[in-house]
Structures
1.
Amino acid sequence: MEKQTQTTKDESKRGVVLLGKYEVRRLLGVGASAKVYHATNVENGQSVAVKVVSKKKIISSGFAVNIEREISILRCLHHPNIIDLFEVLATKSKIYFIVEYAAGGELYEEVAGKEKLTEDHARRYFRQLISSVKHCHSRGVYHRDLKLDNLLLDEKDNLKVTDFGLSAVKNQIRSDGMLHTVCGTPSYVAPEILAKKGYDGAKADIWSCGVVLFALTAGYLPFNDYNVTVLYRKIYRGQFRFPKWTSHDLKNLLSRLLDTKPETRITIDEILKDPWFNSGGYRFDRVLVKERELEENRTGFKIKSLNAFDLISFSTGLDMSGMFEEISGSGFMERVVSGEKPERIVERVEEMVKGAKVVVKRMENGDGAKLEGHEGNLLGLVVVYRLTEELAVVEMKLRGREDECSALFWKNKLRPLLLELAHKQEVPVSR
């Protein structure tokens, strides 16, 4: 992380220069844990959006993992219809996402202002949405909160997907092949998520795309009710009505997008062959060529899939070290990318503590171990996050920074082991 020489306690003041790099113009929006500002780069005058997140808030609310994941995911996604992450900066109390500025605002405002869009206009946005979602899924990323509010427009009226805070990646899929975290916005959430029996992230995203398309062409949401219980019942049963102006081909597509059975719901590959989607001689393969060119120009190398080096970024602008040090309290915490198998990592920890007054207790899910004293008191944790078939992230935490024994145990045992486990590979530098 570059050393920053200038910051401010009040970003809301117009003209304030954040971290010596970005001059604040105006407040764009306020969320539960963040504020977003329009700003300009003082060096080149480029317009950017700055998402300001309070570390204290995300740690107290348990959202630190979501923020790390959002940084990681945006680092890996390079698509003309996905908001671009330029860099991430941090101070002791705040994290700053510097992202592409979408001058056109939210797609929600576009629909609200016109009540509904023509099918041709809606089709253009929908094609861009499907293109971006296909790109995400090909990288093993599932958005899980696609809605009008999270779709922005740039100055050329092109759609930009944003807000990946609730997204999931492949390593979150359980042994049954499903995701299990219940999340999303009520009116857009897929029925299988409500069933709480596990769901396919790609299928859930397709359902949300269907809700978006319906809202664009109808001017209202297909599922809506002040009573959440009634709303969920409508979603679960697939109860909605098409407005009278909906064309035959659009009805067919929406019926397949909003199919309550995920196993028969239309897939992205099938959407690309749909008559309504391809109206007017549209050629998706031309879009793919543009996507590849964009990705190669921005990164300098092709990203084949979401891997550990994309998740734990080593480039200067996206260095996450030091951002979450408060999580470990008064103890030690460090993480590395490793090429060792998770079970072998735990074995290495067991070998390392032989002769020390420490007991290693494996976690039931096999993703790590607890380090306990002989009296059963918790000393630390070793957690392993599987990212790909070859790579994992190893996180080690140890309590008691002020305790001399703990400090020596960390210095002489845990940290050297962590460095040994670290995967040695030349990392391509982006931008």
2.
Amino acid sequence: MSKVLKIAYGSVAVGLAVLALKTFAWWVTGSVALLSDALESIVNVATALAALVALRISAMPADADHPYGHHKAEYFSAVLEGVLIVVAAILILREAWDAWQAPALIQAPWQGLGINLLAGVINAVWCLVLLRAGRQMRSPALAADGKHLLTDVVSSLGVTVGVVAAVLTGWAWLDPLLAALVAVNILWSGWDVVRHSIGGLMDESAPEGEIEQMRTLISANAEGAVEAHDLRSRRAGRALFVEFHLVVPGEMTVEAAHEICDRIESAVHVAFEGSRVTIHVEPEHKAKHSGIVVL
């Protein structure tokens, strides 16, 4: 089993444990703010399962029907996570409105807050694991899961502070108000996840920093060629697709041109794990004199 899938399975296990703790905290206190925290944890479990399924699909090798692989499955998972986040926010707003209409004092607050705080610490540790893994492995599914979990950690911290304030002041209306604020925070998180996923589904280009790094690699490893131009790239999950035109002298043999292409591809593969490079070789009269200069 790959490291990515192990982390995905870990997310499901952590999500279930945190959900159990937060549900118990709500049951002990009756706090609608803690209920909102527990409802968000249900979404955490659902999104972790969606990420796991997407990662299993994206790991499948290319086949006749999907010659470029199954990498974009991760983006569908991230979009689903965004939708589920929005659903959770709507549920929380409904609970908050009902509690606002008839505010009630919180029961056994310190015991419930202790349980909820333990769940928050577990979430915070796992959030760091997901964000680091998503960045290192270039996994949209893990990155989206980590960003969502980060909002849960922030929400839990805000809920804890707010519930303490409600208990100390006796202002029961603070409880539903906090739940509503948690819902707004979750909605913003959902939009951010969906926005980034749509970019991947629409074949968004690699960041400018990576494009510049590609230009440098091509320039440094294309000795013998004239120039390179029309560099394009797109990300699909953990895969990076790169293509460009390479201009070579008209008298150069196919074998010599092929050696230059192999050299460039090897350099790009080392710098960008999981990259797929396509090079279109052209004769010298096709030069545009405005592309990548060969060192």
3.
Amino acid sequence: MTRTVWLTPHAHEQLRAELAALRAAGPGDELDDPAGLRHRQRVRELEDLLARAVVGEDPPDDGVAEPGMVLTVRYTDGGADDTETFLLGTRAAGREDLEICSPESPLGSALIGARPGEQRTYQAPNGRTFHVTLLTAVPYGHHRAG
């Protein structure tokens, strides 16, 4: 399944510049060279990311959790004050003003499609199960303006 990646214009430009620099440098000629392999993998990763990117467009303000939305959640396994607000997006989104949660992470994938008030369950990499309730989901641009 191909997922759209939400990027700010700044992050999109940074990734394009990184890709251009990697292409200009070229990988090592040796097929078994670890540095050349990492170089080629990063080029493929950036090409894939940029091909799936939606740049600078806020998702609809419909309260549904999806990439590009700022989510506030409550972890119901903890106390009533155990809330967190983060941008559902990739680290490449380049936001320093908010924590970022990847849509591919256990938490992010559990929240995709959730509406305020819905509880979702996810399993952390350590095997522990968590319950989280979506409190709000607003487009990043609306969060930023608020």
